[in-house]
């Protein structure tokens, strides 16, 4: 009875973590779309830097209040994570600029097989046939929803390649660092957010000027635009935290698969709020296929042998000082 209750509690926390990520991710996309399309704030990299500044302030306040305990993350590990994360952000922005929307969506879909490859090679993960097929159905459904015109050029292909691999490595590294150093999501954010904030604010204005031919200091900061920037930064705190919680509790592949539910919700929300693109039959069919694939993936991966490691778990460092990984996830579960 106790085991069943504990399993039910874990399932409830898992669902809450996913919903937290979905709500904040969809919310920030809608706010950023309004900020950029309606108010002309097209400085995406600088805005992301501001997001991490806000996240840094949040972790500093939580540490001051005693909710985040001191922890250790080697500088080399932090540097690798920041490189992967920043290349992911910049690569995605450049890929969207240089590629058609169709090829950009295909590149995003390819993150799932790349994440699978990393787990198979680095974590010795093994997937059942049903798990593999369910991932294929999700890819098919989201592809039907989002992929339209597909054209590619050399520089766009290189940008997409960098974006896909850096994003997959960054998401894998979140799970890897939490396991190896027994870090909660709060602790890991406390280490990584300041480094990302500083580096992105340093290169962001120059990169945004290169991409848009506009200076961030020349933007007309009206009260409404500033309000949307503050709202975007506030929601970003939840988005960053929920991403670390979800990847820490699950894996990068599961985060990518179930995360495509956000793509479907963004399409629906865009139709409801902006009304520029209708939900045609192709989009509806794609949504149905994707949802079926997600449900199938959830069932297939949770069954014995659906998704399991072929070797022992990664040993954690400094385990006695900072607590076990289960203690870290318990902290995340209380968010």
UniProtKB/TrEMBL annotation:
Residue ranges of domain Sugar phosphate transporter in the record: 23-297
One annotated Gene Ontology cellular component of this protein: membrane
A Pfam family the protein falls into: TPT
Coiled coil (UniProt feature): none
TM stretches of this protein: 12-31, 43-66, 78-96, 133-150, 156-174, 186-207, 219-241, 253-275, 281-300
Region (Disordered), start-end ranges: 302-335
Keyword vocabulary terms for this entry: Membrane, Transmembrane, Transmembrane helix
InterPro entries, alphabetized: Sugar_P_trans_dom (IPR004853), TPT_transporter (IPR050186)
Molecular function GO labels: antiporter activity; UDP-galactose transmembrane transporter activity
GO biological process: transmembrane transport
PANTHER family: SOLUTE CARRIER FAMILY 35 (PTHR11132)
Protein name from the UniProt record: Sugar phosphate transporter domain-containing protein
Organism of this sequence: Eucalyptus grandis
